[in-house]
Amino acid sequence: MNFLSDTTAPAHPDLIEAIAAANRDFAPSYGADPVSARVEAQLKAIFETDLKVLFAVSGTASNALALSVLCPSHGAILCHDEAHIHRDERGAPEFFTGGGKLIPLPGDHAKIGMDGLERALAEIPEGFVHTSPVRVLSLSNLSESGTAYTPSEVRERAGRVKDRPALVHMDGARFANALVTLGCSPAELTWKAGVNALCFGATKNGALGAEAVILFPSVMDRFEELQARQKRAGHMAPKMRFMAAQFEAWLRDDLWLDLARTANARAKTLADGFRCVDGAEVLHPVDGNEIFVRLDEAIAAKMRDAGAQFYQWPDGSARFVTSWCTTKAEIVATLAAI
Amino acid sequence: MNFLSDTTAPAHPDLIEAIAAANRDFAPSYGADPVSARVEAQLKAIFETDLKVLFAVSGTASNALALSVLCPSHGAILCHDEAHIHRDERGAPEFFTGGGKLIPLPGDHAKIGMDGLERALAEIPEGFVHTSPVRVLSLSNLSESGTAYTPSEVRERAGRVKDRPALVHMDGARFANALVTLGCSPAELTWKAGVNALCFGATKNGALGAEAVILFPSVMDRFEELQARQKRAGHMAPKMRFMAAQFEAWLRDDLWLDLARTANARAKTLADGFRCVDGAEVLHPVDGNEIFVRLDEAIAAKMRDAGAQFYQWPDGSARFVTSWCTTKAEIVATLAAI
Amino acid sequence: MNFLSDTTAPAHPDLIEAIAAANRDFAPSYGADPVSARVEAQLKAIFETDLKVLFAVSGTASNALALSVLCPSHGAILCHDEAHIHRDERGAPEFFTGGGKLIPLPGDHAKIGMDGLERALAEIPEGFVHTSPVRVLSLSNLSESGTAYTPSEVRERAGRVKDRPALVHMDGARFANALVTLGCSPAELTWKAGVNALCFGATKNGALGAEAVILFPSVMDRFEELQARQKRAGHMAPKMRFMAAQFEAWLRDDLWLDLARTANARAKTLADGFRCVDGAEVLHPVDGNEIFVRLDEAIAAKMRDAGAQFYQWPDGSARFVTSWCTTKAEIVATLAAI
Amino acid sequence: MNFLSDTTAPAHPDLIEAIAAANRDFAPSYGADPVSARVEAQLKAIFETDLKVLFAVSGTASNALALSVLCPSHGAILCHDEAHIHRDERGAPEFFTGGGKLIPLPGDHAKIGMDGLERALAEIPEGFVHTSPVRVLSLSNLSESGTAYTPSEVRERAGRVKDRPALVHMDGARFANALVTLGCSPAELTWKAGVNALCFGATKNGALGAEAVILFPSVMDRFEELQARQKRAGHMAPKMRFMAAQFEAWLRDDLWLDLARTANARAKTLADGFRCVDGAEVLHPVDGNEIFVRLDEAIAAKMRDAGAQFYQWPDGSARFVTSWCTTKAEIVATLAAI
User: N or C terminus: which one in chain C shows less Cβ crowding within 10 Å?
Assistant: First the structure.
């Protein structure tokens, strides 16, 4: 009953098999392999658009690489105060952009509120040489509180910054989880809503270690620079076919959506259970596979005794993360403990 | 008959199996897993010393990470003019060190010559605020020409810079290949000869994608900084166990040495064959799995017609790289073509 | 009647004369001149301690240089949300530190409040590899709202972060203005209160362009690195004697304190005048030479018509900055207009 | 008899007077002052073209700023192995470009030879993601050996790299000295010969501390980025008028050319003297105000005894630098000593 993080979960067996299959024979290195090409084609179909893609081994890497081609070193990136890029990447965006500036914004449930966005835009002048101008808006979907921006919420925020001019980055470490809850298409949640670049994560949803940086047509001309930065950051893996192979299997036959649906369903059941318990308060909408719940210590202790593992969050709540391999039995056992 | 690079070769099946085995159940993320701990123990035994280790997905990453904790941003790194860190990493060392300076040195067969080293040390003053002082000496073993530094050659060069004070980095992307040819112990070729940090590569010798940065006791106090830099460079893979598992299988029962011996033996046979052919001139000692040979165009054409793939090197020679899975039959067929 | 900024004011004539005097004959370059040495001695006397000092041409430079030896590239700097280093230096701290992270904190009158400081310290873990740890606390004295931290306020904030461990930086672009209001000694306001490094500004208070970075004994061992960074940032002026000469004249016979006293007195008179006027609301304590006042548009218009120049601040208030050469007559004329 | 460096010389009195004159009254800060605007007009007339200009306090700053808008962080800069940007700026170009790579080239008398340039271009591939592509050619005029590139030599080298595509930077710390020897126009030696950006130095030739970064029309669209980088590097001096005032006086009535002619004439006399002496060998053409001469120790000792100060160069020669205020009497006395 491990709810610590979806990064502690194993990979889906199909991806292991795909790696084994990709291991037959020689293949061009550094992303020039045929598997990588096939994944690009898959993604074009899924996102219903032309695009460019490359892979990285971690979400931190994919976020920082994407931001480094969207934001000049003397520009600023607006993000939520609790965003992973601001709180949990040890300054990776600052490092990759060459000293770009992150401006943390407020907003309920870890989603950037329109008020905070308006205030930041009012406070940060454009064309004033002393101040880093707004060049990127970064939205995390799922957010750090496990909540989802709807396509219209994305569009509203993206639309507000377009004329700065600023570009829109989406941290989609749990993009699949948001998508299946929202019930919209990948295109509707991204480029159609104003997103220029998506960091599309598979690692938390069944992969061994595979993240994709996707440039939509509006910024596709930056792909050569992105590759140069990928290389000099050490993220152009020599045997890239093994990362591509994970994506190919994960995207095939909607496996990625099925895995996210399972994880979300488990989270929903667990959250519903919490809502029936005195001494447990679910803090945010559960739009994906994460639950933040304020627990009486007695309840928390019972769950730990029953073998449930979860994190104490900085705000004092308990975080439960389900994954593609969380079983119904585990949820039942966890709830039975309380 | 693919001699393009050892990065185009498949991984050894044992490593795929090890990944599948590591995929059972949940495991702590970011390197806190038990497999990573076991690999550290293996490495301590192999190198006969205490040490600290972390993993990265590419040689460029491991070199740049290691250099970034050895060299301050205002220091200089001495390396051979043909070194991978200087020619083939798109400025990764400069990026990771925050603007450190690479000083390319001459030397036969891509090994830093003592003359060039002495001249550089004479020309670069110490304690002169205008000039980046020498803080690192980087040795590639195997070198970019496929030649090996002996332990005494390493010791001689390391000893020459110790009082700068400078530290010694070894780019061991093909460390195993050098080691089995030299017949010395891993300790003798590294820390006993004055090496402070080793980038120990598995990818070119049978892994899917796994490189280790090893800090020997003299610089082990920099490990915490190394981890911080690994994280902010996006190289702290969430499911690190899959990189560790590759190393565990690769190091077990001397598999890594066996694979290198096979690759080296194939290279030796091929080089011996070239040496018997008019119109083929082997340019450097073949100390590992790389051969650089100047070929008459007629001969090169025959080999290509026979299906042999190899790179044209910038100096006009042809480069042949053998790997753990190059077969005797492929060597025979290649030589038969000429 | 120019109240736009103290950077628009001329320099004090004594400093021009000092430059002319320093221009006689040859002198060693890059800070090895005798004037620079004499200024160091003056500063040791004024601050009643050993210290190391170097000069820079702007406050942005001196802040960023100081921060770059206090904060590692993977660390975080706590500052007020309105701090100059966060709002008005175009990402200079991020650039000079190699990607360090600024964490903006709240607090009335542009002074970091203890509540906000406590919350940040609670939220930012120590020893967690994913999060940039707190390594510097930066205090602006005067603050961006023209208010002063007292020695005990400095000590309280500095004491709170010492065990992180974090160092304390003071942005003293208007240090003299704070000092003469507080009536304490330079030592009491800095190293005795826990400040490790002071950026001591002269430009806004009578110099042509001269700022000093002062390292107190607790961090004096970083001076060699500071010089290296000064050089590679292009701030080691070849003819440094001309910057030193400004400081020498400015510090001689308490000229620097007299100039600050004059500027502060003018500000006080102006603020007192505003306080007697309906339609004018002084927003912050006037602890130095800056007044932020909310003005009815009618009043503002009258003042502009009378020839008074001042900035519209982002919060809607009007900022008036007095300088060493603001005259009583100008204050009278400005107030007479309303 | 100080021949150590032209940076140890005093400034020309006209520039001190200009500073005093600029000190009357208030003036807009950060380069928006009327003096700065007048200097831009002067420079347009002198260079017979439209251009954009900003000022910096040191040659290291102006070189690094210029290079940072010419070279992406993942590009390479070709320069002579002895270039100031490579040997004497503590890694400033690497720092400002965010990790750009300097490739040192050979060539007699510290001028890049066409052979070395051709070899570098042949060795450094274009469009190969692993290798930093050539994006800038940097020429020092005067070179570090005191020699000058003629307009046709500049044109030949610039023409060779234009199609990379690469831009041409000229380090003109002693541009005036080269110019008066060559007898060509400023335009002929720069943009007409293919130079895109010039670092135009006044400090070594009579200023207190004033360097100009000039963008010619081909790269004028990068001026906004240059200003942003000037600001975040701390080189946007608040009271910029004092730097501009130096340039205005220096450029007026060809003072800058007269000063350079004087310095060059002194150097010529001294070099001619050396050429008549046994035991003194002048090593390079004396195209400006620098002489490199191999001296018998007995001769060197006599000169030192007579009060002549000069540097021992790393190559074992003695460097004599004359300045605008070196007198004929000093030259006579120096030669008389031997």
Answer: N
CATH of the domain spanning C256-336, picked from 3.30.1360.70, 3.90.1150.10, 1.10.357.140, 3.30.310.50:
3.90.1150.10
Which CATH fold would you assign to the domain C7-254?
A: Aspartate Aminotransferase; domain 2 (3.40.640)
Pairwise CB contact (< 8 Å): A73 & D236: no
**Does the pLDDT at position B321 exceed 90?**
yes
In angstroms, the first-to-last Cα distance of chain C is 14
Contact present, D166 and D136 (Cβ < 8 Å) = yes
Q: Which of B26, B235, B241 should one mutate to test binding to chain A, selecting the residue with the greatest count of A CBs within 10 A?
A: B26
Pairing outcome for strands A290-295 and A280-282 = antiparallel
Q: What mean pLDDT comes out for the span A182-210?
A: 98
**Torsion from C-alpha of D46, D48, D51, D53, nearest 10 degrees:** 0
Residues of chain D that touch chain A, judged by Cβ-Cβ distance less than 8 Å: 30, 72-74, 98-99, 129-130, 225, 227-229, 231-232, 236
Strand partners, B215: B52, B197
| Tens digit of each residue's pLDDT (9 = 90 or more) over C10-43 | 999 999 999 999 999 999 999 999 999 999 999 9
Nearest residue of C to residue D324, measured between CA atoms: C26
The whole-chain average pLDDT of chain B stands at 97
Q: Inform me whether the pLDDT recorded for D11 exceeds 90.
A: yes
What does the pLDDT read at residue B315? 86
pLDDT beyond 90 at D314: no
Rounded to whole angstroms, the Cα distance separating D44 from A315 reads 61
Q: What pLDDT was estimated at residue B46?
A: 98
Cis peptide before B10 (omega within 30 of 0): no
Provide the token pair at B39. Answer: 């690999």
The pLDDT assigned to C77 comes to: 98
Give the tens place of pLDDT for each residue, D107-116: 999 999 999 9
Burial class (CB in 10 A: 0-12, 13-18, 19+), D25: exposed
Kindly list the domain boundaries of chain C, sorted by start residue: 7-254, 256-336
Q: C135: part of which helix (H) or strand (E)?
A: strand C134-140
